[in-house]
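To whoever is on call:

I kicked off a structure prediction for a single chain this morning and the downstream step that reads the tokens threw a length-mismatch warning. I double-checked the sequence; it's 421 residues and nothing unusual in it as far as I can see. Pasting both halves so you can look.
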Amino acid sequence: MSAIRHWLWLSTRGPSPGMYAARILEQFGTPSAAYFADEKEYDLMADLPLKVRQALRDKRLDEADRILHDCEQQNIQVLTMQDAAYPERLRQLDHPPCVLYVKGKLPRMDEEAAIAMVGARKASPYGVMTAGRLAMDLARQGALIVSGSAWGIDSAALKGALQAGGRVVSVLGNGIDVVYPTGNQDLYADIAAAGALVSEYPPGTPPLGEHFPVRNRLIAGLSLGVVVVEGTIRSGSLITAHWALEQNRDVYAVPGNINAPLSKGPNSLIRRGEAKLIQDAWDILEEYEYLYPAKIHPRVPLTEEGSRVRLKDTVSHLASRPKKKAKPELAGEAEPAPSPTGLVIDLSQDPGALTDDEAAILWSLQGGLQYTVDDLVERTSIPARRILSALTMLQVRQMVKEENGKRFRTEILLKGQNPLK
């Protein structure tokens, strides 16, 4: 029991605990060793934000005990990285969550032909129909569908797979006991019955906007490939695609009208050669048939009319969003809020405010400069994989904003000694 309490203690250190747990475990080996470490030992991890190191000094276990109690009361399973049921696909990530919360029955994800489907919350009727039909055909042919639970494409994909009798996994940016959006209570129940709801956030955690870009790495990480159905250039769907590319997952995109804003995201992935253009489910599954012969069974896809009949209620329900937003703070889920203006970080006074990679990127972007990932690699001599990880965290913390042309800018003013000069 003490070991699980220490895992939960570790999982709640910092605002995005899953992004730092691996580094802490690398230093100390186990959560218990990290818990019992001398406070001075935390300062050896100068690459961690100061707030995280300060959180490690808090040895109280009240929060861990509350989480255990809530999970027991609500029949929520707790998986740690040491558990056999913890997916190896996640364990291999640079930033694996040290704890997962599961409602339902999590399949053996490492043995599944799991395909993630993501897209806009404010989806078009075309996007909702396409997501539902693709998911339905993928499920009929043996794939497991992974998605979020947001309105629009996520919900359409999950419902399409469920209508085909398939299994699904939904990765949440909030506690499993918090239904978001509030109209998805029935969908939550259906997912738990036919698969699992998964979150790295403990019960009671609200669906804050900054959780979702971090959550997206798990959607990509659990899957063989990610399908982007609809999304703007700056959408959360593109963040998921970038996580997939960084994690060596495949990316697929549904082409759309060149004049439609929601098609600009998938079309841009195709144009840059980062995604395979798909028109049906087999365009995806043909890539994995030889790897999962016992799972994937080619079948004649449903006719357009057959799909339309099955998905009629889904399309009419999801293509028109509720008039009231139950969680207005979630405006940043699909398109992260702009970077705050006027924020000054003095690294000479607070050297732990940024990691070395984050600081190097922000120094490069000073003075209103805008650079692509390739530009930043050249200027900082930091590998592209680390640049992408640091950029994601800077976007989550609203310190960097992505502009047109995949160029990044910041409004953060840095003070201190610039190592790039």
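Update from on-call: the warning came from a stale cache, not from the record. Cleared it. Sanity check on the structure: DSSP finds 18 helices and 13 strands in the chain.
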